Amino acid sequence: MPFTRRNFLKSSALLGGASAFSFAVSPAVAHALASDPTQALAQPFETGWEFARASLGGPWEAWNLDGIAWRTQPLPHCFNALDACDPDHQAYRGQGWYRARLRPSNSLPRGRTLIHFAGAGQRTTLYAGEQLIGRNIGGYNEFVFDITDGAKDIDGQMRLAVLCDNSRDLDTIPSDISDFNLYGGLYRHVNLLYLPAVSLETVHILPQVAPNQPAICHVSAQLYNPLHLTGPAEVSIEVTAPDGSPVFRHSGNLAIWQEARELVQFPVRDPRLWSPSSPSLYACRLTLRSEHGEQSVTQRFGLRHFEFQDHGPFLLNGEKLFLRGTQRHEDHAGYAAAVPDDITRQEFSMIRDMGANFIRLAHYQQSQLALDLCDELGLIVWEELPWCRSGVGDPAMRANARDLLRTMIRQHFNHPSIVFWSLGNEEDWPNIDPGDGTETVRSFMQQLQEIAHQEDSSRLTAFRRCRTATDVPDVYSPSIWEGWYSGRYQDYQKVLEGYRDKIRHLLHMEWGADCHARRHAEEPTGEDYPPFVAAGERSTPAVLPLVKHGDWSETYACDLFDWYLKTQETLPWFAGSAQWIFKDFSTPDRPENPIPRVNQKGLTERDLTKKEGYYVFQSWWAEKPMVHVYGHSWPVRWGRPGQPRLVRVYSNCDSAELFLNGKSLGVKARNSQDFPCAGLRWSPSFLPGENVLRAIARKGAAVVEDEVQFLYQTQPWGKAASLTLTRKAESAANAVVETTLVDANGAICLDARNCVRFSVVGGGTLNDNLGTVTGSRVVELCNGRAEISLRLSGQPSIVGVSCDGVPDAFLRIS
Amino acid sequence: MPFTRRNFLKSSALLGGASAFSFAVSPAVAHALASDPTQALAQPFETGWEFARASLGGPWEAWNLDGIAWRTQPLPHCFNALDACDPDHQAYRGQGWYRARLRPSNSLPRGRTLIHFAGAGQRTTLYAGEQLIGRNIGGYNEFVFDITDGAKDIDGQMRLAVLCDNSRDLDTIPSDISDFNLYGGLYRHVNLLYLPAVSLETVHILPQVAPNQPAICHVSAQLYNPLHLTGPAEVSIEVTAPDGSPVFRHSGNLAIWQEARELVQFPVRDPRLWSPSSPSLYACRLTLRSEHGEQSVTQRFGLRHFEFQDHGPFLLNGEKLFLRGTQRHEDHAGYAAAVPDDITRQEFSMIRDMGANFIRLAHYQQSQLALDLCDELGLIVWEELPWCRSGVGDPAMRANARDLLRTMIRQHFNHPSIVFWSLGNEEDWPNIDPGDGTETVRSFMQQLQEIAHQEDSSRLTAFRRCRTATDVPDVYSPSIWEGWYSGRYQDYQKVLEGYRDKIRHLLHMEWGADCHARRHAEEPTGEDYPPFVAAGERSTPAVLPLVKHGDWSETYACDLFDWYLKTQETLPWFAGSAQWIFKDFSTPDRPENPIPRVNQKGLTERDLTKKEGYYVFQSWWAEKPMVHVYGHSWPVRWGRPGQPRLVRVYSNCDSAELFLNGKSLGVKARNSQDFPCAGLRWSPSFLPGENVLRAIARKGAAVVEDEVQFLYQTQPWGKAASLTLTRKAESAANAVVETTLVDANGAICLDARNCVRFSVVGGGTLNDNLGTVTGSRVVELCNGRAEISLRLSGQPSIVGVSCDGVPDAFLRIS
Q: Residues A436-441: contacts with CB within 8 Å, 24+ apart?
């Protein structure tokens, strides 16, 4: 049959909603299959794809339109990988198309062939030829499409076209006014599944754990049986302990069943409980055998119990556990949502090394790998439905939110790390639809609350910031940003305690400060830096004026972190908090930021380069001895000759000794309430020119040390007069160029925070749009400096840098 | 009422098609109102708008989303103005939003307030607040929306948001595989109309004209009366002759009527007939008075009759008229579809000055101004439905095509210049849907044919290229491209005559050649330049191989034009043709062209800069004496010392004399069949270095002359070794830089057609994305040269130019 321009099945006519087309097979099982290399039933389907970022009229055009710039594209792939932080343009919101030819080969009689998508943004439609196979509405859930009956060409090949659409849409969540990018693309793994005609769809393991009793585990399963086949089946279950020893075995015959059913329950005596300090994981292998074939899946689970005392702390396995948390978006420099697995592993490892035991996966269902890592590393999880700044919305949006909540809980049910199912975030945002009195934000949250408890009575629901419904979720966090969006950080305790009696189960989610990596201040609390209210956080815009931003130094942020952490140590009633956010991330909301379109509240840059604040947290939370002298990215400090200058040292050790240019400035003991730096601070006078600071800290027998080198500049600087531009480092493939803003005498203007723009002509290409301080062609200076790197070709390049008020500078790179 | 994030009325739920929402008032009348400055009822609504090129979730987001880059945008405006010819990216296809606040002030009791859009691409939706006002599906028709009952804010202001969407859509015409861009935006005029409660909607004047008889004119009108009011009305009609003298007056009372009705018919004795040589226009002023108010509209019309003889010529007003035509897209450098009125006037004036009497408005309904100019200048019009490479499509597409055909005919009914209603173009393109046997391309064309004749029995239908339906339209053009997409131009007559007996009414629409302005060849028919088949024109791709492109010189194109024109003069049976196309235009299909994404078959560049071919046509068609020495943009000719070199002179005069460096080379008489140049050619030997050629031509008493200066290079050149880059011209605000490709000895490689890329760093900005030979940062060399201009700021710039195989060159512009 010739493949001619015809009408394809139109979404408007045929697609009723997400549930009609997706979730045919539980992606939890699909994921278990796909991530288990011993399973012959699954294989990655991540090569052979082509991609075009274009709006097309339908799948016919995906194969027949000239002039579309298709390019080979391995998956996973986010089509906003390099435009989310473009200083000059907003990130693309629209259609992206993927296409591939496939010759399915399922050797099982009447077997089913499925494609498993571990997540794609934001609405995904699959076609075989011009045939509509399925559609998923949701940017963060897993889904499968059954292509067994998909249209093939006469040569037996299937032409698959996938439309990912992240254009703005009021019918879905999260809302477009969210402070993060709603990315597009096949940004998580894609697998082909060759299943028997009858296969396992969902396997849930529900442990009941109580102090000093055997744990009782319930195993239930649901089948995928689209042909409604009947007949006998055999189910085998093998459970192993964290050390691999057998715990339970069972095998039985039963008829192929409908709906979910409990298959077995079994006790675990002397359970090895899961906790942050001992993240012990059991494994359950379930095998289904029938005349249609055999399938095994392995699911991990954990045994733990918890209690959240009213107006008091959180207890895990009977012991008080202060929740030391941070937060995470799925976003990384150069990849956006398509974070490679090794980077995800590195990120969670860094979070754990910092001493965190708690994480909020903001603001949506994250990848199975992320949850697996939380299980393995011992991070208690607050996972969240992306009902974020959406308001009541319309019926389609509400249906989408309900669907996605059920999906998240079903797909992540077995992860022991998850304690909190968050129903959403910031549903009292200005201008969102509060509802009409019958359908209100509060009543809709109650619906979600009921769904969450129906799906999973073993966990708590949670919510951050919704003043009209603080009593609806099991756990609630108000918005407290003292020292950043409002007030002074010194008032944190007072403000926090004001909520203690009002909220039954209080967590404090989101606190912190923006800072521009590599920007430092000698006096961060100076007049230069008033508290301010950011546009996005104005809850009552008529009352709170928008005041000017401060200097966004790391120094100020460290002091704020230090103050909050010192305060939290003294509140035995307080259950815990999560700082916002571990890593800088891109947002459509903040084009005016020092790195345009980047939310810079991270403890690391968007590429996981640590900022100084990371070490502040580590000094409060980590067990392993550490010491860190503030200022590793501060090449020049300044002041008058002989003027005392503050040296901050962050350490979790009992004491530390500081050396300036080899000479001891004395030993100081750590005293948690001696702000800043828990007393580990000195105020020496530096030599003009080169200085070396070295700290040696001791915790019991352990000794750790850290050193920084810097220049001390006593020469004052005048008005900015010109830019320098020099090559700072080089390799065959790359060059790093640095600009400085200097006065008429050539002295660097060390407090300059002007915005500069780099550009290049010739063979080189800027490594930009990365959302990092050294990876943005438009960026604010850090203490008078900025740098960027170039990829070189054989051809010479000329780099330019411009800054309002001074002449452009140029540099030839040969 | 607070304006909160709510559901807006969804297009998928409520919008049934174009006709349900648009065409409430005939835009012909709306246009007559809007373009008549004496009418207080209409005012331009082209300032106060803001624009953002972004996909939004709906009108709520047009007013409430942070981070959307709204900018002030006067109308008309095309949102592809600067990306249609971007060498690096495809033109944007998606949503563009316009918003404005309006305080409507219609002083008439129960008066209606309308917004008139003279055309917008490609689908347009208007909202007041979140209220859906109307939707138009079609990129080229006029439409009005009635905002009388539109939602207002409490302060009485209406928040208007207009969504223009040009994303690809198989349900509409033209097809996305068309060889022109489907632009987006409010690219024609927008007006506010304050009408009485009952007003004139359509006024049609149908003249019946026969030789040597009085013309009989029928005037009919339809009312716009959305409140279904009744009562008495008075209608007055005044008709004036081309010289302003009164022809007819009538006044009468009647009841407010429903549907269209004939109001009056009147004779015109001794009519002044409309023709290209005497484009005489009558005017009819119609005034409606009722208790609701008074409204007058003036419509122009013309009196003419025509005959198309079977297998023979076309006769206008009883005399044979050979149709000498070209074609036009609405497209211009820097504006795309939003061509300013003065440029439109200049363009039609140039077409008329070239001697054309016929024009095809390709491939869609063009602006009223374009039609007004054809009426005034005497250009016979083939206007076209954009059913172009669409195939049978789906029912929605076919309904859209039928709607748009009716709309075009109703809106342009009164223009005397229009003779042909074209039903479409190229509906036998490879891979389009030929239909299923019941609904086929042929049967659908028959439907369109019937609609056209129902709407207007006074004109002919037409079609270009559809081999399965050559007998359906009244007039048919096959595809003949001898010398460009196939064959040799020398075979033109043979191929054309092959159609004479097969086609009852034959016109030859589309012929010509691409050429790169400023590229010239000493020997354009050399081996270097085989006939070739372009990808887009391969009708049987398996049979015709894609052969390499030639040198795209102006010289070859001029010879081809010359040959076709000479041939056409000798065929008394032949009705006429239209060369493709008057002006270069942008297309998504040709990224590999010498100017990427530009169809370069124009007789002018995309900014109306004449190419040499313009003068070839003028020499055959124009009445006014002219002479043109070929090579005004050819600074260096080449050859051996003493080698004879061909000099082409194009003139419509009886004879011409050529002078080389002041010395006569003799007088030659024009002989139309002496190819090339109708015998006006010489083959002198040039001096090495500076030469001056001067032609003096005589036609009766008239004397015209033309001169070119150039260098003659006898030094051969070797392999390309490097690029030069120099500043060629300058002003305070602009600089022009030129690059040349030279060999190791610095000699320009005069046959080089390499592709070069310009870039700039620093304060300057390239004037690029214009689709002209000097306005594209990626462009093929013309005889070893290329240039581009920069807008300068106070800051210095460095321009770079690169070309594969040689080092980049740089130039500092201070």
A: A436/A392, A439/A392, A439/A398, A440/A392, A440/A468, A441/A391, A441/A392, A441/A466, A441/A468, A441/A469
Contact A517/A605 with Cβ under 8 angstroms? yes
- Please give the helix or strand (H or E) that residue B638 lies within, else none: strand B636-638
By C-alpha distance, the chain B residue nearest A389 is: B5
Name the pLDDT band for A541 (thresholds 50, 70, 90).
very low
Q: Is the pLDDT of residue A123 over 80?
A: yes
Residues from chain B that touch A167, judged by Cβ atoms under 8 A, are 55, 57, 94-95
To 10 degrees, the CA torsion angle through B188, B138, B281, B320?
130
Catalytic machinery residues of A: 426
Tell me the CATH architecture of domain B629-713: Sandwich (2.60)
CA distance A128 to chain B (A): 18
Q: Known catalytic residue: B426? A: yes
pLDDT above 70 as % of chain A: 92
Predicted complex ipTM = 0.85
CA B100 – CA B229 distance, rounded (Å): 32
For B362, B390, B466, the CA distances from B400, given in Å and listed in that order, are 18, 12, 20
| Regions in chain B scoring below 70 on pLDDT | 1-28, 31-40, 525-550
Q: Do B393 and A810 touch (CB under 8 A)?
A: no
Interface of B with A in 500-559 (CB under 8 A): 535-536
Q: Indicate the pTM of the whole model.
A: 0.90
Give the DSSP H/E element, type plus range, for residue A705: strand A702-713
> And the tokens for A66?
């000239």
Q: Could you confirm whether domain B199-306 is CATH 2.60.40.10? A: yes
- Does the fold of domain B720-813 match that of domain B629-713? yes
Contact at CB, B170 and A69, closer than 8 angstroms: no
| Contact (Cβ atoms closer than 8 angstroms) between residue A647 and residue A628 | no
Structure letter (DSSP) for residue B537: G
Residue B464 structure tokens? 């270009």
Nearest C-alpha in B relative to A92: B54
Q: What is the pLDDT of residues A428-456, one digit of tens each?
A: 998 888 888 888 999 999 999 999 999 99
The phi, psi pair for B182, rounded to 5°, reads: -90, 90
A178 reaches B (C-beta below 8 A): no
Domain range summary for chain A, segments of one domain joined by + = 5-194, 199-306, 308-622, 629-713, 720-813
The CATH class of the A5-194 domain is: mainly beta
* Fold held by A308-622: TIM Barrel (3.20.20)
The A residues from 82 to 141 touching B (CB cutoff 8 Å) are 89-90, 93-95
Q: What b/e string do you get for B692-731 counting C-beta neighbours within 10 Å, with b at 16 or more?
A: ebbbbbbbeeeebebebebbbbeeebeebbebbbeeeeee
How close does chain A come to B603, measured CA to CA in Å? 25
Strands (E), A59-179: 71-72, 95-102, 112-117, 123-128, 131-137, 143-146, 158-165
Report in angstroms the alpha-carbon separations of A801 from A517, A770, A784, B796, B801.
Answer: 20, 18, 13, 11, 19
Pull the structure tokens for residue A10: 């139109």
Round to whole Å and give the CA distance between A181 and A81: 11
Q: Which residues from B are below 8 Å from A591, CB to CB?
A: 67, 69
The three state secondary structure string of B677-746 is: HHHCEECCECCCEEEEEEEEEEECCEEEEEEEEEEEECCCCCCEEEEEEEEEEECCCEEEEEEEEEECCC
Judged on CB neighbours under 10 Å (0-12, 13-18, 19+), A203 is buried
- Taking CB atoms and an 8 Å cutoff, what residues of chain A touch B588? 66-67
**CATH number of the domain at A720-813, please?**
2.60.40.10
Average pLDDT over residues A769-774: 98
At B431 the pLDDT is: 81
